[in-house]
Amino acid sequence: MSLRTEQSIFRGASGTVEYTVDHPEQSPVGWALILHPHPLHGGTRDNKVVTTVSRACVQQGLLAIRPNFRGVGGSQGEFDHAVGETADMVACVEQVFQDWPQAAQGPWVLAGFSFGSAVAAQLYAELADRDLPLPARLMLIGCAVERFRYRPLAVPASTLMIHGEHDEVVPLSEGMDFARAHQLPLTLVPDAGHFFHGKLLILRQIVLDSLLGLADPQP
Q1: DSSP character at residue 66
Q2: In terms of Cα–Cα distance, which of 89, 81, 178 is closest to 125?
Q3: pLDDT by residue for the chain (219 residues), tens digit each?
Q4: Domain coordinates of the chain in residue numbers?
Q5: What is 4-211's CATH number?
Q6: What b/e string do you get for 45-64 counting C-beta neighbours within 10 Å, with b at 16 or more?
Q7: pTM summary value
């Protein structure tokens, strides 16, 4: 599946933030925000886990947005240990509802990988505090939330956690600790490392399965 993409920017808390928009073939039925791993360790919006999740979202008819965190690519500012990055993503969500009204009418998905999982979880809590629209699905992949947590969390029971059995960056035990603390199930990918090399098709299928029926009319 080839993606139709475009580049855009929004104004974050510390300047311009650039992002890529991946479009579904038909009019979007919702949208997704997908957050990349650690900016100081090569993480970008083009990370293969991020693009794999984006393709799954697009396949389900969602408009997928992949921002570069501050200090990455053309995004201004410096790494801020998830605090400033979360503030930037609040601004991103607000802009999506202004700039992509058709997609914003449907449900939306918030996904984060590694460092991005910390921003995603805290973004969810920030949105809840501000009474802003919450995502219908929160996905935490290679969960590293506790490494960068700066605030109390409000993680929904429907959260999808995905972790590689042999994650060499964020050990499985760390993901299990987070799942246990928040009473969440955890989906384990056997023999997978942190970046899911050789397991991206499995990861994509897990995400696809979690999105089934997301945009169906509610009874």
Answers
A1: E
A2: 89
A3: 556 899 999 998 889 999 999 999 999 999 999 999 999 999 999 999 999 999 999 999 999 999 999 999 999 999 999 999 999 999 999 999 999 888 989 999 999 999 999 999 999 999 999 999 999 999 999 999 999 999 999 899 999 999 999 999 999 999 999 999 999 999 999 999 999 999 999 999 999 999 998 877 544
A4: 4-211
A5: 3.40.50.1820
A6: bebebbbbbbbbbbbbbbbb
A7: 0.96
